Amino acid sequence: MAGTKQATHMSGQLYDGYDEEYGCPILDEDRVVDELESQMSEGGVIVDYHGCDFFPERWFHIVFVLRTDNSILYKRLETRGYNAKKLQDNIQCEIFQILYEEARASYREEIVHQLPSNEPEQLEDNINQISKWIEQWVKDHNS
């Protein structure tokens, strides 16, 4: 994941119904991959999503997994109005490091990095770290 291009509006219908239990649309993963394929093959794209196991490994040069302490995460999700089931499942997902383990299983271990995302200062540090990585990636791939 690198570069400065931003994926533009996706033209296709990328949902396949609505999940009443979680209160959210059901993403059609195959349609998402099809929709992004041409942009991703050009390179220089950053993808922001809460999971990664359905994205092709060839798309990414680096993967960052943001981690949050459960007490902080609980308050964030509660503020967003998550229902009880969605809130509980998200907290369990963080406790068991599901997204981190999914990333490690889906991509080469050396490209998967964890970043703390608890405080505003850490957000700034993360942005700086990712920006430095992007700058280096661009230098390495344009020389």
Automatic annotation (TrEMBL):
**What's the superkingdom here?**
Eukaryota
Q: Which Pfam families match?
A: AAA_18
Q: Does the keyword Secreted apply?
A: no
Keyword annotations of the record? ATP-binding, Kinase, Nucleotide-binding, Ribosome biogenesis, rRNA processing, Transferase
Q: Which GO terms describe its molecular function?
A: kinase activity
Matching SUPFAM superfamilies, A to Z?
A: P-loop containing nucleoside triphosphate hydrolases
Q: Report the protein name in the record.
A: Adenylate kinase isoenzyme 6 isoform X2
- Please give the organism: Microtus ochrogaster (Prairie vole)
